[in-house]
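Hello support,

Our group uses your service weekly, and this is the first time we've seen a run hang past the timeout. The protein is UbiE/COQ5 methyltransferase. I'm not sure whether the cause is the sequence or the server load. Input pasted verbatim:
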Amino acid sequence: MLSLSVGGRELFRQIALQNLTISSNTRVLDLCCGCGQTTEFLIKSSNHVIGLDTSPLSLNRAKRNIPQAIYVEAFDENMLFENESFDLVHISASLHEIQPGKLQKQKSIREIYRVLRNGGILTLVDFHQPATPMFITILWLFFWLFET
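Update from on-call engineer: The timeout came from a worker crash unrelated to the input. Re-ran successfully.
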């Protein structure tokens, strides 16, 4: 919630990537990329960015907005990439959408580690269940304004 109050959605999407060294040769997977909000930031550092999402509508927006990346329509729990394909896997604002107790989250995390090279980096930014009514209101407002 700190990022919402001091930096908005841009900071929220990039906060886990700050202080990382991403070179032009870094192989990056922007998992659950949506419309490409984080992809736009990643493509400034790397020439090898793939955005993966299940929504064709979101991917079409991402392709229009950030055509330098490659986009793949797929589920994150069954990716068709080879083992150890990526140096960096980034996920922002998507794991909270998986219902607790479902095996999907476990399958997704196994897949992430399968496609992440040995010694690679996983970055993650997401929401947690808010504990106070004020944070519930802020979270609801954020989703209403910024999520697709």
